[in-house]
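Write out the 3D structure for:
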Amino acid sequence: MLRYKEEIDKELELFFQKKLSGKSGIEREVISCLREFTLRGGKRIRPLFMLLGYWLNSDIDKNVISASISLELMQSYLLIHDDIIDQSNLRRGGPTFHKLFKYDDRINEGIAIVSADLADAYSHETLLSSRFRPDYLNHAMKLMAETIEFTGVGQLMDIVLPLGEGMTLDDVTAIHRYKTAQYTVNGPMKIGAVLSGYPNVEKIDGYGISLGIAFQIQDDILGMFGDEKTLGKSVKSDFEEGKKTHLILYAYELASESEREFIKRNLGRKNISDEDFERAREIIKSSGALERTKELSEKYYGLAVSSINELTDEKEKRDELLEMAEKMVRRTR
């Protein structure tokens, strides 16, 4: 599937060029920023999974590639809102969307929120303008709405659940299931599958949800232990934002009392020193929390892989499903 990334990028560029035509003022500025933000270094995971779902039952053609950019536009919409909520400064090696404008913070965030709404509208527009059977397209639009709804519920959980002391490992997994798995793997695959007329799209859940959870757990690991240049953001950012990931909750469970108190005292601390952050990372490693988190990612990866045979009898397609799963979980960025 990765071979289609260049074609997806071309379709995105063409879409934005058409949107920019004849525009001026703040409208042109916003569309230009959406173009730059969307095309900036993304891996196109969601369009690629839509193509993968489509390929389960049909050959990939230009129509479905054009339609697949709807998932990347949806991604921009969700990322812009997420970065405002988290007050993040970096995304994909550049400024977050609300940092691209010259006004004060309140105005910049307002522009970003509305710009994200435009990206959401664009995502629906690109899918609706595709040339698929009306009944298939109607089903796909319902799945897109469902995907955004699941993601919204997951985002609400992500905002509220960490506020209390009783957040559990199951809570973190539930957030990953709703917020990440649905809009990263499961939703895009099911949208592609229904557009191809694939029967029993619910079968995709076993692969899509499990792989999406494994992907997010790996993302959390990279968020603390990855390479900043490769990630395009600070490895301190998740810790400074106070994110209670599996890494953190396993550390609470496995570390000594003094180590646990150190993590609690520093989690969410802005501008944490390199020394204190390195100590937090060392506690997570030495306590066994990092290893336990890796094992959990492998568990969900295994569940995804074990469901592949239910999706297709064709070896070529099974191999592609396995390759995509490996790239999602074995990645370094």
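The domain at 200-333 is CATH 1.10.600.10 (Farnesyl Diphosphate Synthase).
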